[in-house]
Design goal:
The structure is a single chain. The protein has 118 residues and is mostly beta strands. It is 0% helix and 57% strand. The chain contains no helices and eleven strands. Strands 2, 4, 5, 6, 9, 10 and 11 form a seven-stranded mixed sheet that branches. Strands 1-3-8-7 form a four-stranded antiparallel sheet, with no helix packed on it. It is globular. It starts with a strand and ends with a strand.
């Protein structure tokens, strides 16, 4: 089992920045990748960014490329999402997600609210 706890959400004005953190615990050695998803009211949950736990290759949704940066600290079992130049359309609940390929499992955090005012 893997447990994920997000933090760092909040209210920010358009153009501002926030940094989200996701701390993993439990069987963290089994994690292959960690991702950020978001879900806005009335919309489906969508992929935002991901990072491979080993090697560190990254991926981003087109809507956040050039504005968001994902990183990890393996020593702290933590993934970060630095969000710059925030827009009102970035308003959503942001969820941390972990993928474990050995048992084909995925894990989700409880989510953290990000609100960007215009």
């Amino acid at each position: 089992q893997v447990q994920l706890v997000e933090s760092g959400g909040g209210l920010v004005q358009a153009g501002g920045s926030l940094r989200l953190s996701c701390a993993a615990s439990g069987r963290t050695f089994s994690i292959n990748a960690m991702n950020w998803f978001r879900q806005a009211p009335g919309k489906e949950r969508e992929f935002v960014s991901g990072i491979m736990w080993s090697g560190g290759s990254t991926a981003y949704a087109d809507s956040v490329k050039g504005r968001f940066t994902i990183s990890r600290d393996n020593t702290k079992n933590t993934v970060y999402l630095q969000m710059n130049s925030l827009k009102p359309e970035d308003t959503a609940v942001y969820y941390c997600h972990a993928r474990v390929e050995s048992n084909r499992s995925t894990y989700w955090g409880q989510g953290t609210q990000v609100t960007v005012s215009s």
